[in-house]
Specification:
255 residues; alpha/beta; Rossmann fold; 2 domains; six-stranded mixed beta sheet; four-stranded antiparallel beta sheet; 26% strand; binds adenosine-5'-diphosphate; binds magnesium ion
Length: 255
């Protein structure tokens, strides 16, 4: 099986600050890779390189084995890479349909094709197995979990094979967090690969197959979530050391 994403030896400097120092990570179809590390470790910068928000100073990116140039967010989207940022970037005054198609509206002649956008929005939300009471209500009036669903719907509507989620449950209650977990499992089952950034170790252990820890712009290591303890991972985050006896997890674990 080929990796969906391979980022190799990525370096990026902001002035005198080496935000990414020779970072290599990968992601395979149908798996969740958790990205962990203290504030400032470089997690967001790394995914911004993948999503086309930043350009690396050096390093390579391969998508399904093919070397690619990602110079802007449009390049990333064309490659099936979608990002959900912590703030969700939804337009509060617009409804779910409009948000899902924001900036990529369907048209029939000069007019918006509301009917087919609504139908497709409904289908994508069904795929996520989520009920949204009204697709035509401004998203400002929705719960945090429903808003998160709209953001995910927006990402996968455009055939994302690679989904990046930066702190997807930070603003959610327990029930909604559980729902997002279900969404993530549904996407995995469809073969989508997910980079999951979260502060919440519990979430990451619950959802991730592998965990990559970063510290000071470098990768400490990658481990199999099911083969390490919370303390092991804290040791990686805080101490910057691989747990004793942990196998390096450069490829998915075979069942
Ligand atoms: N746009 C930017 N300009 C300058 N420095 C930045 C910028 N974005 C991030 N940094 C710096 O890069 C480092 C990594 O930050 P970041 O990727 O946001 O870490 P994390 O997401 O792991 O908290 C930090 O030292 C941060 O201050
Ligand atoms: Mg961040």
């Amino acid at each position: 099986m080929k990796p969906l994403v391979e980022m190799k030896n990525i370096c990026l400097r902001f002035g005198g600050n080496q935000a990414l120092d020779n970072v290599s990570v990968n992601l395979y179809p149908g798996e969740v890779v958790g990205l962990l590390g203290h504030n400032g470790a470089g997690k967001s910068t790394l995914i911004k390189v993948l999503s086309g928000a930043y350009r690396a100073d050096s390093g390579q990116i391969f998508i399904e084995g093919r070397a690619v140039e990602i110079n802007n967010p449009q390049d990333a989207q064309r490659l099936g890479i979608e990002t959900i940022y912590q703030n969700l970037a939804l337009a509060d005054n617009l409804d779910a349909v409009a948000n899902i198609f924001l900036g990529r509206e369907k048209r029939r002649g000069f007019a918006l094709d509301e009917e087919s956008m609504e139908l497709e929005a409904r289908q994508v939300l069904m795929r996520l197995r989520v009920q949204i009471p009204s697709l035509r209500l401004p998203v400002a009036q929705m719960s945090g979990g429903q808003r998160q669903t709209v953001a995910i719907g927006r990402a996968i509507q455009f055939k994302a094979r690679i989904l990046i989620m930066d702190e997807p449950t930070a603003a959610l209650g327990p029930e909604e967090t559980r729902k997002v977990g279900e969404l993530i499992r549904a996407l995995k089952a469809e073969g989508v690969g997910i980079f999951l950034i979260s502060h919440d170790l519990h979430d990451v252990f619950d959802l991730a197959d592998r965990i990559t820890v970063m510290k000071n712009g470098r990768v400490v290591g990658t481990v199999y979530a099911h083969e390490v303890s919370h303390d092991d991972v804290l040791g990686m985050i805080i101490g910057g050391v691989m747990p004793k006896n942990a196998r390096p997890a450069e490829v998915p674990r075979t069942p």
